[in-house]
Specification:
Blueprint: H1 3-22, E1 41-47, E2 62-64, E3 67-72, E4 82-89, E5 92-100, E6 108-109, E7 116-117, E8 123-127, E9 129-130, E10 142-147, E11 161-167, E12 182-183, E13 189-193, E14 202-209, E15 212-220, E16 232-233, E17 239-243, E18 253-260, E19 263-271, E20 286-287, E21 293-297, E22 307-314, E23 317-325, E24 351-352, E25 358-362, E26 372-379, E27 382-390, E28 405-406, E29 412-416, E30 426-431
Antiparallel strand pairs: 1-30, 2-3, 3-4, 4-5, 6-9, 7-8, 8-10, 10-11, 12-13, 13-14, 14-15, 16-17, 17-18, 18-19, 20-21, 21-22, 22-23, 24-25, 25-26, 26-27, 28-29, 29-30
């Protein structure tokens, strides 16, 4: 019974509640000052309509063969979320609605994480709710696969076919998956859930066998930890991620799970203190080529708006380095204002280009307190911060919760969860 309150509050805090705020009328934003001119060129390449293309994109984009794939937490044919594709057509982009979630016991609803491509070219992802999970009200979420039509499609838009790989039931196998999945070399899938186990979420493995998938529980997280941002893996197959809460100071952690023989050994690499180092990391992690880890916290830090940090391996441990502290905002328009778990800083993983520059988004920082796209450039032993675009809440969007993609030409891409010409969010591009 202990899991029931977490089931009810987690989806509100991490999903539906955010969507409701993202859908708030943006009429009050019209009086906000224009952003400071930037050197880069910002443009909107898609405005979500709320139809089959979706609405309220929580997650960022996945680049595959020059096309972008993504999810929306709302919209679709039943307004329960969608998976879409953006294809370049000359100087413009064409959007295809690949799949609309239908909810209920047989399907998911409200995807919050990016989709990824599997080794056979199919799409994989999760929904934060839906499925038969009886302990979670709207269902505890699913892991799904999408594959294109078997024959050549002659129409403008051809829906893909969904297969539910696993449906969570809350107790004891977890529920409310929100982070990105990761494959290993053998084709197994790994992910995390916000609840389940000891009520702090679980780390799980899905093993394909004979056309079906079996869940293997790798670890329960300690009470109250809540892994939110998904997983990454190193060349040895070890897994890394963050917890939104928990740890020695109850401000979140960075963790590692090492594969040892037939089992896994979990280690906390860093405990956030909630001081200048930041707290409540919602974002996932990235590696650089030297094996250093980069991430972000959504709250606290010296400026109150979260931090960007680096963890470097040293002598069998990891050294924490603060790279930047955001000013932060508790503006009433910010989704979940005043909620300690919903800080105004970065909510999504960072991106790094070939020269070591870092890029990311903030939920409610920036000149207008509506979020921004930022760059951190290494310089003279430190880091130089630049705001590449400050969202205004108009046609350019607002409240970006997504990661950033950097292509080979230095163009940046991502999503904003609100605003745009239809008020349902946008996909944006920044050209150098």
């Amino acid at each position: 019974m202990k899991n029931l309150p977490r089931c009810c509050t987690s989806i509100l805090r991490n999903g539906l509640r955010l969507t409701n705020f993202a859908l708030m009328p943006l009429c009050a934003l019209a009086m906000i000052a224009l952003p400071v001119a930037q050197a880069q060129t910002f443009s909107v390449i898609h405005n979500f309509s709320g139809g089959v293309d979706g609405a309220i994109p929580y997650a960022g984009l996945t680049d595959h063969a020059g096309n972008f794939y993504g999810t929306t937490s709302s919209g679709g044919s039943r307004n329960l979320g969608a998976v879409y594709r953006l294809k370049r057509s000359g100087p413009s982009w064409i959007v295809d609605g690949l799949y609309s979630f239908v909810g209920g016991a047989s399907d998911g609803l409200q995807p919050l994480a990016r989709v990824i491509f599997g080794p056979e070219g199919r799409l994989y992802g999760t929904t934060s709710a839906g499925g038969p999970g009886q302990f979670c009200g709207l269902g505890c979420g699913i892991v799904f696969q999408l594959h294109p039509p078997a024959t050549v499609c002659r129409s403008v838009s051809c829906p893909w076919t969904e297969t539910v790989l696993y449906a969570f039931r809350g107790i004891p196998d977890g529920g409310f998956p929100s982070g990105e999945l990761v494959f290993d070399a053998a084709g197994n899938l790994y992910g995390t859930t916000n609840i389940g186990g000891l009520d702090g979420g679980i780390l799980y493995k899905l093993i394909p066998s004979g056309g079906s998938w079996t869940e293997n529980l790798i670890s329960d997280f300690n009470d109250g930890q809540v892994p939110f941002g998904g997983l990454i893996s190193d060349n040895a197959g070890n897994l890394y991620g963050t917890t939104q809460e928990g740890g020695a100071h109850a401000r979140g952690t960075v963790f590692q799970f090492q594969h040892s023989g037939s089992g896994w050994t979990g280690t906390v690499l860093y405990n956030f203190q909630g001081t200048s180092d930041g707290g409540y990391p919602n974002a996932g992690l990235i590696f650089d080529q030297a094996g250093n880890i980069y991430g972000a916290s959504s709250a606290e830090g010296s400026g109150g708006g979260g931090t960007v940090f680096e963890l470097s391996p040293s002598g069998g441990g990891w050294n924490y380095t603060l790279l930047y502290s955001f000013t932060g905002s508790r503006d009433l328009n910010c989704p979940n204002p005043g909620d300690q778990y919903a800080g105004p800083g970065p909510w999504a993983s960072l991106a790094m280009d070939g020269t070591g520059n870092l890029y990311g988004t903030t939920l409610c920082d920036g000149a207008n307190h509506l979020g921004n796209i930022f760059k951190l450039a290494p310089s003279g032993g430190g880091w130089t911060y630049t705001s590449l675009h400050d969202f205004t809440g108009g046609d350019d969007g607002a409240y970006p919760l997504s990661s950033v993609i950097v292509d080979a030409s230095g163009n940046l891409y991502g999503t904003a969860s609100a605003g745009g010409s239809h008020g349902h969010g946008v996909v944006w591009e920044i050209a150098p």
